[in-house]
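Re: that backbone. Tokens:
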């Protein structure tokens, strides 16, 4: 294309070009093949020249190159005896007398069998594609020693005790499956460790609480001084007479019973008794709820003064 244009130039002069448009078109046609030639040259240089500051690619790691000695030493440090470690609920963390052994690639069945026989172990399960075998350690051989011996074998990629897992704590409350919010905050995982200590007291400042509700009854706060005191007297000296369940700061009486329903729902989300086969499960199964009512019966609003008094 470039040679063709150059041939055409021989018989042409700028004087013969009638206007500026013709000149511009001619120059544009001339630039296209030049630019194409330049880019193709740069492309060839890029193919044959390494990129600047490009680090050489590392060689592939040979199979079995990594060592498991460090992990075995850590395991032996953790299990110097064959005592069974327990979780915080007293359940064993490992299955007694069993190991999971993962072999290196290329280790034959015969080589595996020779290793097991030399240690007196029995294969009781396997995952062929993953090269994992579950073995029963022979009687009299400490598990810590079996870990060391398997870990020292050139055939073994990794070995560990057979860990046990337990399902998350799931309550039997019939409406629990509809409580998507508990799954959002991972409540079942937390319940595996605690369902809240019985001594936790939570005040619900709302429309009151139905303190006769069967799913809350066991977790309702009761004022012991007033419960055992004389009716009509301020037995605990807090300025509130007969405040057994809490106080109604909107109606100025000792019956913070919920007629709206909102406060009871809030209290239920917080502390409905869990795993009792009834209703829903609260976040804190063992927490205690104090009812502080700040909305008058039949009203749609809560007055700030009632809320402030409840807080104090």
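Recovered sequence:
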């Amino acid at each position: 294309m470039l040679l063709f244009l150059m041939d055409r130039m021989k018989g042409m002069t700028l004087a013969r070009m009638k206007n500026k448009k013709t000149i511009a078109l001619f120059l544009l046609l001339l630039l296209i093949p030049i630019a194409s030639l330049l880019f193709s040259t740069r492309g060839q240089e890029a193919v044959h020249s390494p990129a600047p500051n490009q680090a050489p690619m590392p060689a592939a790691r040979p199979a079995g190159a990594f060592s498991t000695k460090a992990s075995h030493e850590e395991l032996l440090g953790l299990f110097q005896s064959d005592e069974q470690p327990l979780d915080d609920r007293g359940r064993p963390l490992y299955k007694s007398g069993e190991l999971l052994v993962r072999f290196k690639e290329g280790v034959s069945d015969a080589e595996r069998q020779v290793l097991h026989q030399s240690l007196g172990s029995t294969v009781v399960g396997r995952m062929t594609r993953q090269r994992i075998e579950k073995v029963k350690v022979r009687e009299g051989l400490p598990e810590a020693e079996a870990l060391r011996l398997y870990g020292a074998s050139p055939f073994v990629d990794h070995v560990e005790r057979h860990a046990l897992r337990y399902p998350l704590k799931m309550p039997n409350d019939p409406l629990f499956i509809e409580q998507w919010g508990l799954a959002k905050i991972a409540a079942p995982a937390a319940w595996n460790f605690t369902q809240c200590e019985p001594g936790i007291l939570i005040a619900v400042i709302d429309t009151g609480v139905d303190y006769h509700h069967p799913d809350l009854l066991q977790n309702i706060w009761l004022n012991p001084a007033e419960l055992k005191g004389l009716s009509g007297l301020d037995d605990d000296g807090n300025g509130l007479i007969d405040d057994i369940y809490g106080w109604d700061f909107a109606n100025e009486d000792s019956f913070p019973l919920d007629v709206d329903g909102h406060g009871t729902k809030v209290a239920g989300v917080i502390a409905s008794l869990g795993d009792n086969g009834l209703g829903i499960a609260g976040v804190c199964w063992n927490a205690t709820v104090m009812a502080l009512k700040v909305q008058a019966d039949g009203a749609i609003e809560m007055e700030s003064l009632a809320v402030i008094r409840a807080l104090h």
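The chain is about 30% helix and 15% strand. The chain has a mean pLDDT of 80.
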